[in-house]
Write a structure and sequence with these properties.
66 residues; three-stranded antiparallel sheet; 47% strand; mainly beta
Length: 66
């Protein structure tokens, strides 16, 4: 089951991750929220070192902890 968050407006969002390779050849993971679950990209738990915030528009986002 994908990690989910219900925002202040009542919409449910699910956490996903996408792997990318930079021009330097380093592999990075990019996290994003979507309204539907995409089975090949869904993430089961929130990653270590991140905190959950909500943008002014209601969209949840991940922010690195200080």
């Amino acid at each position: 089951m994908a990690f989910s968050k219900v925002n202040s407006k009542g919409t449910t969002y699910y956490l996903h991750a996408n792997k990318r390779v930079t021009k330097a050849g380093k592999e990075i993971k990019m996290y994003f929220f979507a309204r539907d679950v995409r089975p090949d990209k869904a993430v089961d738990a929130m990653p270590e070192g991140y905190e959950l915030i909500e943008m002014k528009t209601g969209l949840p986002a991940l922010k690195k902890k200080a």
